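Sat 14:20. Reprocessing the chain from the morning session after the first attempt stalled halfway. Input below, unchanged.
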Amino acid sequence: MTQPKTRSNAAANYAERDRRVSDAIALELPDRVPFHLFAGYFSGTYCGVPFSSAYYDAAAWRAANVRTITELEPDVYWAQTAMLSGKAMEILGPLGMRWPGGGVAPNLSHQMIELEPMKQEEYDLFLRDPSDFMARVYLPRAFRSAAPMGQFPPMRSVIGPWGLAGLLAQSVRPGMAEMLEQFAAAARLQAEWQATDLDFDEKMGELGFPAYNSSRMMAASPFDTVSDFLRGMRGTMLDMYRVPDKLLEVCDLYCRQNLEMIAANPAPAEGVRRVFMALHRGSDGFMSLAQFEKFYWPSLKKVLLALVDAGWTPCPFFEGTWDRRLEYLLELPRGKVLCHFSQTDAERAKEVLGGHLCLMIDVPGFLLKAGSVAEVEEHCRKLIQTCGRDGGFILTATCIDEANPKNVKAMIDTARTFGRYD
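Finished this time. Tokens:
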């Protein structure tokens, strides 16, 4: 009789935690301030497991995530699950990323490398046939293993009864057969790797812990898509001055792609409906307000509103400082979006957005690594006093990979005790 009781308790705990978070987002008053555990690589620090396990030892990394979440008992979590096989990545050779055990030390976080796979003069080439550009230009520049793909003919030329035969004939060119063998080997490794951890959120749900982000939906800022993956930060910033119309045209293309995907995938009747969105280039230090109004906000706003209309809860992570952009967020529907801020002034965010949108504010990573327990508790109490009054607030910390576990626990305990509304 013990097992059914355990399952019943887990289901009740799941419902309680999820409701606490949902109430905060909807600007209703929960019993206390919710806490979001943005685990990242912190599970390795907490359990004494190298970060490289996330890419090379799926069983050990899964066990570390399970232990971290079940022992700290957050209201909602985001885990760096075993999504990518380090061995598969070594074969594919991504030029834009280094990972623990694959270019960086086993206990360091992954690093993104700025590339410029699309040149400024190639906007028209991309816009004429985006899929062909991605296959024959982007991939060879972004992955060492894909270099021979530049030898393929345009896919639009593969037509008629002789089309496929002509395409396959390209495989005898130098390096082509080796590339296809590498792709096959990497595909097998990645499929085997993913099979070990695809059910992580489901299993954590059975233990009573809701995931922060739905695995059914992904959305992004169109400008960030261009800047992160095609032009790089430097290239995109120059494009705002030199080829603004071309940049806007590509942003519009990615906006339409987001809207089409969202329309085809409405939120489920049950389960997690939150959609995490990391925003990289729209903060105060990257562009002026005039540029923000022209290049960044219009397409991002369309994506956010489309998610809301489809029943999803957008959870944009406003990286950097957004002190001068807060008023724009008042254009979003009340109680329908969770605004996660990294370095934005918490008091100003509450002043502008309080009563309209829920705030989720980071505790600084340096404090959690080098501060004392007393300093962490004091900082969290001040955040709760500033942003938690009348609800609409969630406490979190993003940069905790190397945090002191005692400080992380102090942060959570403060939310549980000082953050109560009853």
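The two ends are 34 Å apart (CA to CA).
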